[in-house]
Amino acid sequence: MSNPPSSPFRHGTTVEQELAYYKAQYEQLEVELQEFQQSSRELEAELEKDVEASEKRERKLKERVESLGFEVEEWKTKYKQSKAEANSAQTQLQKEITTMRETNRTLQLKLRDIEVDNDDYERQARNTTSSLEELESKYNVAIERGVIMEEEMRAGEQEREDLRIQTQRLRDELSDLRIEADITREKLRLSESGSRRYRDLTPVRRPSALHARSPTSSRTAASSPTVSTPPPVRSEVSTLSDTPTPPSPPLSDASGNPMSKMLPPPKKNPLVSDSTLTPRATLNVNTLRPARHSRGPSFATATTPSGKRRTTLQSRPSVGSEGEQSHEQQHKLIYKARRQRPATAYAEVHKHKYTR
C-alpha cells in the first residue's frame, strides 16, 4: 500500500487525485480498524481470561478470608483462654513469690543468726585452739621436765649407787683398819707385857737362853699344837667381839722351851702389814641376811717363870678343805680390791660372798 500524499489538497490538484487520496485514506483506516478490532478481540479475550483468573483468585481469597476469619476467631478464643490461664498463673506466681519472699526473709534472719552463732563458734574454736596450744606447750614443757627429772633421778641413783659402793668400800676399809688396829694394839700390849716380864726375869736368865733358837727348834715350836683355853673375859676383848675377827698366826711361845717364852718378841712397825696375817673377808652390810656361824678365835695360855699366866690370841683352822679354798679365794679377791679399789671389784667380792 502506497503512502498517501503528505499534504492535503493543493492548488491545482484534480478530483482523481483527491479521490485517490481519500481512497487511500479509507483503505488505510480500514486496515487499521481491522487491526484494532483484532487486537481488541485479543485484548478482550485476554481480559476475559484475566477476569476469570481474577474471579478465581477472588473466590480463593474469599475462601481464605473466611478460613482466616475462623482461624482469627479460634486464635481469639485461644488468646482469651491463654490470657485467663496466664492471669491465674501470674496470680499464683505472685502468691508464690510473696511466700518465697517471706521464706527468704525468714531464711535471711536465720542465716544472720547462724552467722552470729558461727562467729561465736569460731571465736570459741580459736580460744580452744589457743588453749590447746598452750596446754600442748605446757605438756611438752612437762614432758621435758619429766625427762630432765628422770635423767636427774638416774644420775642421782647412779651417784647414790656409787656413793653406796664407796661407803661400803670405806666401811670395809674402816673395818679392816679397826681389826688391824685391834691386832696391833693386842700385839703392842703383848710385846709390852713380854718386855716387862723380860726385864723382871733378866737377873735369873741363863746364858744358854740368850742364844737364838735354831731353825729346827723354831720349826718344832711352830708345828707344835696350841693349847685350847676358854674364851677370854669380855672386858679384855670387847673390841674384838664386836666384829668377826680374822684368824691370827700361831705364836711359838705357847709351847716349846720355857726359856724361849721369856724372850721379848721382835717389835714390828704397826704401819707395815704382817705377811703372816691372813686378810679378813669383806663384811656383809645386808641386815636382812642372817649372820653365818663363825667360830671365835682361840686363846693359847702359857705360864711364865714368875707365875703369871699369859694369854695369846690364836686362830682356829677352818673346817673342811672347801671352806679353806673359799676363804683363800675371798682373801685373794679382797687383796685385789684393796690394791685396785674400783667399785666393780667390791661388787665382785660381795657377789662371790653372797652366792656361795
Automatic annotation (TrEMBL):
This protein's GO CC annotations: kinesin complex; kinetochore; microtubule
Subcellular location: Cytoplasm, Cytoskeleton
Keyword S-adenosyl-L-methionine found: no
Annotated keywords: Coiled coil, Cytoplasm, Cytoskeleton, Microtubule
MF GO annotations: microtubule binding
Cross-referenced InterPro entries: NUDE, NUDE_dom
Coiled-coil regions listed: none
Protein name: NUDE domain-containing protein
Source organism of the structure: Aureobasidium pullulans
